[in-house]
Amino acid sequence: MKFVSAIIKPFKLDEVREALSAIGVQGITVTEVKGFGRQKGHTELYRGAEYVVDFLPKVKLEVAIDDAMLDQVIEVIEKSATTGKIGDGKIFVFNLEQVYRIRTGETGPEAL
Amino acid sequence: MKKLLSTLAILSALGLGVFGLANIAYADETSAPVTAVTTAVAPSDVLVPSTDATAVVAEEAPKTMDVGSTAWMIVATILVVMMAVPGLALFYGGLVRSKNMLSICMQVFVSFALISVLWTVYGYSLVFTEGNAFFGGFSKAFLKGVTPDSLTGVIPEYVFLTFQMTFAAITPALIIGGFAERTKFSAVLAFLVLWVTFVYIPVAHMVWGGGLLSDAGTLFGGHGAKDFAGGTVVHINAGIAALVGALVIGKRVGFGREALAPHSMVMTLIGAGLLWVGWFGFNVGSELAVDGVAGLVLINTQLAAAAALFGWITAERLFKGKASMLGAVSGAIAGLVAITPACGFIGPMGAIALGFFASFLGLWAVTKLKNLLAYDDSLDVFGIHGLAGIFGALATGILMSADFGGVGYPEGVTMASQMTTQVISVGITVLWTGVVSYVLLKLVDAVIGLRASEEVEREGLDTAEHGERAYHM
Asked: Are residues B326 and A47, on separate chains, in Cβ contact within 8 Å?
């Protein structure tokens, strides 16, 4: 099993969710996050006071999947989250050791 | 439930009956005198046209109450109240960090209320009764001698003194922006009470109450400083005091190193909008009557605000790259400040020029001057109220010339002599408010202590001083 964590632009969230649902992903977890990459921050100016905003708002999307789905999931996220401009985000892939469904006690791929 | 309803029905029926009876009884009592009056009037002539009657009254007693003016002045007074609560509170509140939102609102609300009471105890008397060049007397302390029948011009004295009360109460509230986010609540109140007593009252008496700088004053030989609605008394006065306050109290913790960005531009927009609307009460009301000059003030106020708004964002776009909403709002306020002393003396085209150039001065002050001198006038009271106020007061001396579409100078006054008068009156105001504010701040610092501890400042004044927070999100 794999655990995929993707940092994307907030306004792309709906598109990514729809695309993932369409290929049969059962659930995702979403967190509003802040950070910086190559896009860097921006400057805000209030009268004479200039503030550099280093951390830009992003959305972190986490999804646990079966190994077989990995390539498809990566492809779908890449396709639906891209704008072609700097700051589109990154996808991190981890090996996932175990999954438990709390309600039934199921484990492994059945619990996904 | 049914029982409750029926009981209520019976009770209300009884109540109505009692009130009905009472009304009848009252009507019986009063009906006799009413008919007596009618019969007394009837023989003379029932069909006398009302205009003749008023004409006769006007000839006999020139100082009579004007109903239209009185109605307007009551509305104008309420508009100025709206400028402070909630206008100024929201305008300032949006500009501070969310942890200090309530402290600003409290300081504005409470000082406004406190000074309103003080105004009737001694303020009104010390400004508007005869005294020396700097203070009036105590003859109307506690509003002694003021009755519903007493008039000021064509409006009841009660209306006049309430209108003036709102000016005295909003001016100190303006100063709060200079030392926002770091000053103790108790110290703010103590300072503002002292400030009204020893700065606002004498300056208002000098300009409006027959003191040193007025037409009646000795300094300018019969032709005093021109300050229609309070450029010197309100804006220069408060602007300089705020600068002195910012310097004496010192910078906020983290000023220049940490982000101290405003927490809600929308609150600031709402507040500024209320200020703009209320300013018509402030400026037009200062004519104290409904007449042609009131109309001139109306158009001038709007034009100066509009031109300054446009001027500010144009300059921003040219020199900073982006036109900002805070810039638009700041420009409008700077224009309104600048037109305040001039609004009844200059022409509409003069008002456009005045507002437009005042906005450049304001922008320069809050972007360049502030960084150059490194003072932390948190909400730019000095840059916007102080400097735009000084600019407006001085420009009044030039733009009031008939050559620029103004109302022209009084007999025997030239542009040069009027300008001298304006410069001296601005100078005296700056000096008075600067020196006395400094002394009062030092006094409060010695007795109460002005500055909140660093711990309190870090935590935010809302929870530390008032035990509540503005937002639960």
From this structure: yes
